[in-house]
């Protein structure tokens, strides 16, 4: 018996990370809002796409995902998305975002918007397949590398490099969290080579 589209969507909702808080940013978030808008300007393909930026309780620094209701009831072209910023002040992931220089904040937003651009090109059931495969370490690593490539192609490479350099060499985070980031994300030297190679094309 074949899997139905509705079953695909319900499965995807179970796989999506859950944000327990949706508090809107206060004055502290003005710099983040400006960084988001600067990054968004590099993605003309996302004009007209509904994207909500909000705070939430998540495990990583930021996360981009389809909004569950739109995934269940809307067609791909009508989906809306969320970028969730970690609000757990005592966690490394939250401190990393809020202590980053402005250009680094642009870089991390550029990375999350690259995820959203990729999501807009996937059907609902393809999103399910993506969510399942993302649970695998190697596939997750490949996805994050590809997402960085998308950001670089949209001329946000140096902003992304700024964030990565801050993460690995300047941020006040634990060795454990830095090791986690090393496991799945490009390090500054690799990112630098990708940017230079792109600019030389």
Mean pLDDT across all residues, rounded?
83
Q: Describe the sheet with the most strands.
A: 3 strands, mixed
Give the number of domains. 1
The backbone outline, from C-alpha atoms, is globular
Poorly predicted tracts of residues: 1-7, 9-27
Strand order in the sheet with the most strands: 1-3-2
Kindly, what is the distance between the CA atoms of the first and last residues, rounded to a whole number of angstroms? 49 Å
How would you characterize this protein structure?
There is one protein chain. The chain is mostly helical and 201 residues long. The chain has one domain (5-199). The protein contains ten helices and three strands; from the N terminus they run H-H-E-E-H-E-H-H-H-H-H-H-H. It has a three-stranded mixed sheet with strand order 1-3-2. Helix 1 (5-15) runs parallel beside helix 6 and helix 2 (30-40) crosses helix 5 (102-119). The protein is globular. The protein starts with a helix and ends with a helix.
Topology:
Blueprint lengths: L4 H11 L14 H11 L9 E7 L5 E5 L1 H6 L6 E7 L5 H7 L3 H18 L4 H11 L2 H17 L3 H13 L5 H10 L3 H12 L2
Parallel strand pairs: 1-3
Antiparallel strand pairs: 2-3
Helix pairs in contact: 1-6, 2-5, 5-7, 5-8, 7-10, 8-10
């Amino acid at each position: 018996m074949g899997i139905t589209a509705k079953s695909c969507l319900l499965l995807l909702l179970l796989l999506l990370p859950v944000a327990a808080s949706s508090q809107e940013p206060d004055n502290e978030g003005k710099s983040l809002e400006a960084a988001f808008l600067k990054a968004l300007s590099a993605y003309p393909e996302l004009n007209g796409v509904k994207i909500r930026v909000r705070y939430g309780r998540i495990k990583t620094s930021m996360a981009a995902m389809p909004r569950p209701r739109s995934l269940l009831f809307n067609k791909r072209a009508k989906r809306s998305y969320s970028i969730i910023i970690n609000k757990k002040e005592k966690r490394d992931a939250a401190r990393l975002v809020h202590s980053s220089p402005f250009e680094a904040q642009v870089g991390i937003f550029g990375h999350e918007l690259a995820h959203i651009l990729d999501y807009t090109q996937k059907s609902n059931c393809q999103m399910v397949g993506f969510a399942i495969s993302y649970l695998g370490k190697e596939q997750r690593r490949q996805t994050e590398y590809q997402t960085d490539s998308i950001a670089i192609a949209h001329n946000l490479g140096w902003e992304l490099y700024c964030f990565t350099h801050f993460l690995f060499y300047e941020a006040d985070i634990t060795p454990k969290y830095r090791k986690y980031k090393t496991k799945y994300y490009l390090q500054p030297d690799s990112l630098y080579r990708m940017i230079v190679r792109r600019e030389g094309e």
